[in-house]
Amino acid sequence: MALQVTNPPMSLPDFLAMRDFIYARTGIYFAEAKQYFLENRLARRLVGVNIKTYQGYLELLQGPMGKEELKQLFIEITTNETSFWRNPPQIEAFQRIVLPEAIALAKAKGSSKLRIWSAACSSGEEPYTLAMICAEAKDTLLKGMLVEIIATDISEKVLAQAKEGIYGSYTLRNLTGPQLKQHFNLLSQDCYEVKPELKQLVSLKLVNLVEYSAYKALGSFEVIFCRNVLIYFDEAVKIKVLRGFHEQLQPKGFLLVGHSESIHSFNIGFELMHFTKAMGYRKRD
Predict the structure, then answer these.
(1) What whole-number distance in Å separates Cα of residue 282 and Cα of residue 147?
(2) Which of 111, 156, 171, 233 has the smallest set of CB atoms within 10 Å of its CB?
(3) Average pLDDT in the 111-119 region?
(4) How far is the C-alpha of 213 from the C-alpha of 132, rounded, in Å?
(5) Residue 76's closest CA among 63, 53, 57?
(6) pLDDT per residue over 194-253, tens digit each?
(7) Residues 183 and 135 sit within 8 Å (Cβ to Cβ)
(8) How far apart are CA 154 and CA 271, in angstroms?
(9) Where are the domains of the chain?
(10) What is the CATH number of domain 88-283?
(11) Which of 19, 37, 25, 15 minimizes the C-alpha distance to 67?
(12) CA 114 vs CA 91, 127, 164, 173: distances in Å
């Protein structure tokens, strides 16, 4: 019986070199306490590409074949835990407060289109949640208005999942029976597909949030969602990302971040808004 071959442990120099490479490409920063996490995630890729050392893997990433392997690296180092109606108090604040005010902003500038950006949208649960809310308001608040939800992520894999729009009951656990019936087709006992009319509201795009020049190509928005992403960035990248969001928001537009993420200390043109059991930010004039 052959013995299983294991990769050597990641040395500190290997970790620092890989950490710096990932930071430059993604803005995600791994502190030294995260060395074991990174080693564990990358060990799978070393096996996948049949490379024995972390230095060799880094050389692959930096070489002519690196662009394709970089896609796999993104999959390994990003966390895609999400669900529909995640953090219900914040989603309900969007539904009750942010959405009506965002519609008023769009109408005030003479536009018949409401634009929302779901940044780092993962496998689509967030943008489709927003699309559900907008679809339910199409004959009331949004009567006579078009809705465009731009959903972006760094990972082609999760964007492909979002495009497919098929989900199991666990990620749908926060939805009611009527919501499931209205917005999904039942494919099997534990398999639901987003209905075509909901998919039409969402445009999926591959965007790396540290490629700041890509923001302008997306256009301007009344609302930007970027939840549970800023925690992976250091202060320098956070400031650049937030400045980019600020530039792409319409005056008095809304930015909604994760419930554990505060941007108040950066003081770069947003004011804090308190909702019931939730918070958000609004672009200052």
Answers:
(1) 20
(2) 156
(3) 97
(4) 30
(5) 57
(6) 999 999 999 999 999 999 999 999 999 999 999 989 988 988 999 999 999 999 999 999
(7) yes
(8) 28
(9) 12-77, 88-283
(10) 3.40.50.150
(11) 25
(12) 17, 14, 24, 28
Going by CATH, does the domain composed of 12-77 fall within 3.90.1150?
Answer: no
Q: Which amino acid is at 231?
A: I
- Confirm whether pTM is higher than 0.85: yes
Which tokens sit at 204?
Answer: 């999926």
Segment 200-209, tens digit of pLDDT:
999 999 999 9
User: What's the 3-state SS for the chain?
Assistant: CCCCCCCCCCCHHHHHHHHHHHHHHHCECCCHHHHHHHHHHHHHHHHHHCCCCHHHHHHHHHCCCHHHHHHHHHHHHCCCCCCCCCCHHHHHHHHHHHHHHHHHHHHHCCCCEEEEEEECCCCCHHHHHHHHHHHHCCCCCCCCCEEEEEEEECCHHHHHHHHHCEECCCCCCCCCHHHHHHHEEEEECCEEEECHHHHCCEEEEECCCCCCCHHHHHCCEEEEEECCCHHHECHHHHHHHHHHHHHHEEEEEEEEECCCCCCHHHCCCEEEEEECCEEEEEECC
Owner of token pair 């809304």: 254
Q: Could you tell me which residues come within 8 angstroms of residue 70 by beta carbon, excluding any fewer than 6 positions away?
A: 25, 61
